[in-house]
Specification:
Blueprint: H1 2-52, H2 62-66, H3 79-83, E1 87-90, E2 94-97, E3 106-115, H4 121-144, H5 153-172, E4 180-190
């Protein structure tokens, strides 16, 4: 009987040893999977930052949002033009996706056009309303061609205003004297 009892004890102890080995092996598998997940997550994060081009988001300065920026037309610097009163025409806001590879950045711009007093306000408004789709289309395409570095700072924004001023005058008054004196930014926000 002693042999039967010993055999019974050995049979009972063997499954316990197998369960301990199985639970240790199962725990090791979970630890290995967790380490692999952490490594892949870190690699994905690192590659995302690498392809995004930087680690900090870049936006326009808030002080530029609050105050309209004026530009001066170098062709209209004589004092007689500055002393004349003009009128203002507001364009609807334009939203465009900036030309930034790997990152989605938007720009929203609202413009006001300072029109010379030589152009009658009623006729000028009618002309601008008629040509507004062309102007908004051109402005959308132009803004979409810019990069985030192209819109930062006062110098770049004044350059943008001059580009818009020249293009709008060319589109509205191709064979006549330019009537738009200044481009004013009501809103110029990059996100």
């Amino acid at each position: 009987m002693a042999d039967a009892d010993d055999t019974k004890e050995q049979e009972d102890s063997e499954p316990v040893k197998k369960d301990v080995k199985t639970s240790r092996g199962g725990m090791l598998q979970w630890i290995i999977m967790a380490v692999v997940v952490v490594i892949f997550a870190g690699a994905g994060f690192g590659l995302g930052r690498l392809f995004a081009g930087g680690s900090t988001p870049k936006t326009a300065e808030p002080s530029q949002e609050d105050q309209p920026t004026l530009t001066e037309n170098p062709k209209a610097n004589d004092s007689t033009t500055d002393s004349q009163e003009g009128w203002i025409y507001g364009l609807e806001p334009v939203v465009a996706c900036l030309d930034e590879p790997g990152v989605t950045r938007y720009i929203r711009a609202s413009l006001r056009l300072e029109i010379s007093s030589e152009l009658d306000q009623k006729q000028g408004t009618a002309l601008l309303e008629e040509k507004k789709p062309i102007l908004v289309n051109w402005l959308s395409i132009y803004l979409a061609s810019l990069k985030i570095d192209d819109i930062r700072g006062e110098r770049n924004q004044k350059h943008i205003q001059l580009q818009i001023l020249d293009a709008f005058n060319e589109k509205l008054f191709p064979d006549a004297k330019p009537q738009i004196r200044k481009i004013l930014f009501k809103e110029f926000v990059a996100q």
